[in-house]
Amino acid sequence: MKKILFVDDSRDTADALRDIASELGHVGAVAYNGASAVDAAASETFDVIFLDLMLPDADGVTVCLEIRKGRSKSARIVALTGSNELIDKSQQCIDEWVLKPLYMDQLERLLS
């Protein structure tokens, strides 16, 4: 069982991913913007964080860098993006990149 944080400004997306992770036997939490993601990762330790790169209040890379300073600094961070133009693999804080939408088989693979 893993503790997972889903960060996405689409509440439906974040909530659905949390629910699917729960059905797979994991503990899921959600954050709908960058500030709440940083706060959550500072107060709890997550094993995996799925991070939307385009948030209304901050870009995902900035959020990722802030998360790496908190309790979840060793979490595996998977960037979720709707555009492969936003993927910059030189960013040291992101472990893996996935183009949206995230499919069930991808989620299972990423959590295994």
From TrEMBL:
Pfam families xrefs: Response_reg
MF-aspect GO terms: kinase activity
Annotated signal sequence range: none
Biological process, per Gene Ontology: phosphorelay signal transduction system
Residue stretches making up the Response regulatory domain: 3-112
Modified residues (4-aspartylphosphate): 52
Gene3D superfamilies: 3.40.50.2300
InterPro entries, alphabetized: Bact_response_regulator, CheY-like_superfamily, Sig_transdc_resp-reg_receiver
Record flagged with keyword Glycoprotein: no
Keywords linked to the UniProt accession: Kinase, Phosphoprotein, Transferase
PROSITE patterns per UniProt: RESPONSE_REGULATORY
Protein's UniProt name: PAS/PAC sensor hybrid histidine kinase
Organism field: Caballeronia arvi
